[in-house]
C-alpha cells in the first residue's frame, strides 16, 4: 500500500469523485484504504488514486458499482495477492487491544477488499474475539477492553446486516438469543449470513423472553425461529419456557455454546440443533424448510 499524502479534497480534485462517494466506497467495498493523520484526517496514496480512477472509469462505462469494485480488486490482485486472514486477525486484535478504532477500520476494510464477506464474518471476527476472550480470561486485558472490542465487532456486523438489505419476498426467519443470554455475536453473524442468502431476517438480539418471541412469531408468521444459547443457564431458561415454543414456526432451530457442548439439550426445548458451523446450519435450515414445504404440498 502506498504512503498517504493526498487529502480527500485533493483526491476529489484529481479524480472528480466526491468525498461522500469515497467514504461510501470505503464503507461498502473496502477501498480506497486511506491512512489517518495524527488529527484523524484521511490521507490517500498513489495506489488509492489508481483504484479510485479505475472504479470511476468502470462506473462511467455503465458497470454497476458492486461489480466495478470486484473488477478493481481483481485487477489489483496479481500485484499484491490476498494477505492471509490469520495475519489480518492478529492485526485486528492488536488494534482493538490498543483501542485504535481507526486502525481496526482499515484492517477490516482491507479484509473486505481481499477476502469474501463470508470469510470476514465467519473467520476473521470469531477468531479475533476468541483471542480477545482468551486474553481477558488470562487477565492480560481488562473488561472494558473486551467490551470495547465486542462493541466494535457488533457495530461492523450491524452495518453488514444493513447493507445486505431486506428481501421482503424471502422466507421469514426470526433470530434471537435465549432468556438471560447477553452474548449475541454468534446470533448476529447468523443473521448477517441469512440475509446474504436471501432470507427476510428479523434479528431481535440478546435476552429475549420466549413469550415475547412467540408473540412476534404470531405477528410475522416466520418459516423458522433460530435461538442461540451461550450457556447451560440460558438453555435451562429456554427449557423453562418451552411451552411458548411449541408450534411457533415450522422449524425451530437452536445453537450456541450451550447446545454445542451437548447437542441433545435441544430435545429439552423441543427444537433441532443445527450445529456449531454457521454455514452448515444455514444449509441444514434450507433442507428442513424445503422438506416442510414438500410435506405441506402432499398434505
Short description:
By secondary structure, the chain is an alpha/beta fold. It has 13 helices and seven strands.
Description of the molecule:
- The mean pLDDT is 88.
- This protein is 59% helix and 9% strand.
- Helix 12 links the parallel strand 6 and strand 7 (272-273).
- The protein has helices at 8-15, 19-29, 46-60, 65-80, 85-97, 101-114, 117-137, 143-163, 185-196, 210-220, 232-240, 257-260, 278-298; strands at 35-36, 42-43, 172-177, 200-205, 224-228, 251-255, 272-273.
- With 299 residues, it is of the alpha/beta class.
- The chain is globular, with a radius of gyration of 22 Å.
- The strands form 2 sheets. It has a 5-stranded parallel β-sheet, with helices on both faces. It has a two-stranded antiparallel sheet with strand order 1-2.
- Helix 5 packs across helix 7.
- It starts with 7 loop residues before the first helix and ends with a helix.
